[in-house]
Design a protein that fits this description.
The chain is mainly beta and 283 residues long. It has one helix and 21 strands. The chain has one domain: Jelly Rolls (Sandwich). A hairpin with a 4-residue loop joins strand 15 and strand 16.
């Protein structure tokens, strides 16, 4: 249940994000520590080869339908040229009525794991008012709790910065939430990280090494941050690939990614291209 109107919540998130951009942004290449996977074993992989999405691995997250300022439907996901492509666009005659359509997919039906290393390689979608994400969660995250040991939303990558323009937009953010949503949530911005290439044109990898003691966040195999905020989740979680439209109840509004309504409804198409998703664990 939303405690406050979406416009108010979006404004609050946008305001906090401005502060974080000023005080919590750093380079993704500042550290030299890299992930060594030689002792890990692969437990999940989708390379998105072939000509259709493997629905034994993926399902519509939350069953599709209204999602923030738009709608989710698996119709907006396809496999092409070795990539999963999630497209965000406007439909006057869409499945759920007029609006902005995109997609969220998860592995809840096929794969859950506690601890290990999780990574996707992708190109981010271009356009303001939307953002892509690679994240993890479980059903306990929506429940109020004193700590995150039963589950935390682990945002390995979110991309709300295209509207900043030019190389200022070459950033992603990494976050942790637990204990419900809206004003109930407990939240930490792990960091905002500037890339040294254009992530809307080039592939980059975004990863998380989840251990019983700490979370280690990676970009292109290089450690960028670590935290044990809230206490480490001890429960299996599943992976999610998604695009979001700023707003609420299917109505777009201004938010931390801008306003999607500033795009031309007739021609706008943003594509989130994912080359692979992989998960590993230590034997």
């Amino acid at each position: 249940m939303t405690v406050f109107p979406a416009k108010f919540l979006n404004f609050m998130i946008a305001f906090v994000n401005v502060i974080l951009l000023i005080f919590n942004t750093s380079s993704a290449t500042k550290n030299t520590a890299t992930i060594d996977l030689s002792d890990f074993e692969l437990t999940f992989s989708d390379e998105f080869d072939g000509d259709s999405l493997d629905m034994t691995k993926w399902r519509e997250h939350d069953g599709g339908g209204v999602r923030k300022g738009g709608y989710w439907t698996a119709d907006q996901a396809r496999v092409e040229d070795g990539n999963l492509i999630i497209t965000t666009q406007y439909f006057e005659d869409g499945k759920y009525g007029p609006g902005w359509y995109t997609c969220g997919l998860d592995t809840a039906r096929s794969f859950k794991q506690a601890y290990g290393y999780y990574e996707c390689r992708c190109i981010l979608p271009k356009g303001q008012g939307l953002w892509s994400a690679f994240w993890m969660t479980n059903s306990n995250v929506s429940k109020e709790s004193d700590d995150a040991t039963q589950g935390a939303e682990l945002d390995i990558m979110e991309s709300p910065f295209w509207h900043l323009g030019g190389s200022r937009s070459w950033k992603i953010t990494q976050n942790i939430h637990y204990s419900g949503y809206d004003l109930k949530t407990k939240y930490k911005n792990v960091g905002i990280f500037s890339l040294d290439n254009d992530p809307y044109e080039n592939y980059n990898t975004y990863g998380l090494h989840w251990t019983p003691e700490e979370y280690f966040f990676y970009i292109n195999g290089r450690e960028v941050a670590r935290t044990s905020y809230g206490g480490i989740s001890t429960q299996p979680e599943y992976m999610i690939l998604s695009c979001e439209v700023d707003g609420g109840d299917g109505s777009p509004t201004f938010g931390w990614s801008g306003n999607i309504e500033k795009n031309d409804k007739a021609t706008f198409r943003a594509e989130y291209k994912v080359d692979y998703v992989r998960a590993y664990k230590l034997p």
